[in-house]
Amino acid sequence: MERRFAGKVALVTGAGTGIGQATAVRLASEGALVGVNRKPDLDAGETLSLIKAAGGEAFDMPADMRDPKAVKAMVAEVAKRGGRLDYVVSNAAINPDLTWEDTSIEAFDDLYQTNVRGAWVVCTEGARQMIAEGHGGAIVMVSSISAHVGAPTQVAYCGTKGAVSMLGKALGAVLGKHGIRVNVVEPGAVATPMSAGLLRAPDALKYYRERIALGRIGAPSELAASIAFLLSDDASYVTSATLLVDAGFIVNAEL
Ligand SMILES: NC(=O)c1ccc[n+]([C@@H]2O[C@H](COP(=O)([O-])OP(=O)(O)OC[C@H]3O[C@@H](n4cnc5c(N)ncnc54)[C@H](O)[C@@H]3O)[C@@H](O)[C@H]2O)c1
Fold first, then answer.
1. What are phi and psi of 236, to 5 degrees?
2. Beta 137-142 vs 9-12: how paired, if at all?
3. Tens-place pLDDT, residues 142-157
4. Measuring from atom 27 of ligand 1, which residue has the nearest CA?
5. What is the DSSP string of 118-176?
6. Could you tell me if the CB of 242 is within 6 A of ligand 1?
7. Does the annotation mark 144 as catalytic?
8. Model pLDDT for residues 19-59, shown as the tens digit of each residue
């Protein structure tokens, strides 16, 4: 494997499972020292073992993305332990699978505090740190196809992802002068704990295979590859971009 991130330090949020885990493993495999964020009540052991097995280096970084103070402290801690901060991947999110009628104010607040405010705080704090260090950097915000299409049990979640996609584009526009690129990845259907319930529904796999141009659900490692590309110097002229990584899912309208 190439080592595009040798000597660099990355923070990946929600990296205990799914796309975040695959991204942490990918970045570490390519030489980055990775701060593996996870919710304080969960365990990052699996991610840390996978990174070790891949010959990479990482450390556990518990923090609840809903808690701005904890997120700010986490960014400072990653920069302290790594000696610098080069990359932030804002990936942590929840998708509680609620119809609009069932979305309580508490559930709505939880969604926006995790998916939007948490993403905002980690990206802006990361940017402040990179600006203070003076060497530029790169940020990827993980959004969703839900920034473009609605779904009956994801209406409030769709709003959070619309916000994330636009925040990424707008942040890219203001951080370019500091040598910081900000890009957004919008995954389609990917096999992770978040999508497990959806994919278990009767006929779900048949539906997705018919709708998705490439005819299959994505693997977390395929999203990690796109995120790694956007962080790397291979994307040195890419900022404020949104990359739809959905294998031709949402373009395939049933007209
Ligand atoms: N799986 C898909 O089909 C799909 C599709 C589109 C977008 N996405 C997006 O991809 C990203 C990763 O999701 P995933 O599919 O890997 O699912 P996942 O549930 O495995 O990953 C989300 C991670 O975020 C963490 N998290 C949630 N709340 C947190 C908090 N308060 N503090 C810290 N961590 C917290 C979870 O513990 C989990 O590890 C999310 O932003 C999601 O919206 C996923």
1. -60, -20
2. unpaired
3. 999 999 999 999 999 9
4. 93
5. HHHHHHHHHHHHHHHHTS-EEEEEE--GGGT---TTBHHHHHHHHHHHHHHHHHHHHHG
6. no
7. yes
8. 999 999 999 999 999 999 999 999 999 999 999 999 999 99
In 3-state terms the chain splits into helix, strand, coil percentages (rounded to 5) of 45, 15, 35
The type of residue at 119 is A
Tokens representing residue 165 in the block? 């996609």
Q: For tokens 């280096």, name the residue.
A: 57
Could you give all domains of the chain from N- to C-terminal order, each with its CATH number?
9-244 (3.40.50.720)
Amino acid identity for residue 1 in this structure: M
Instruction: Tell me the CA–centroid distance for residue 113 and ligand 1, in Å.
Output: 14
| Ligand 1 atom 17, closest CA | 194
Burial class (CB in 10 A: 0-12, 13-18, 19+), 129: buried
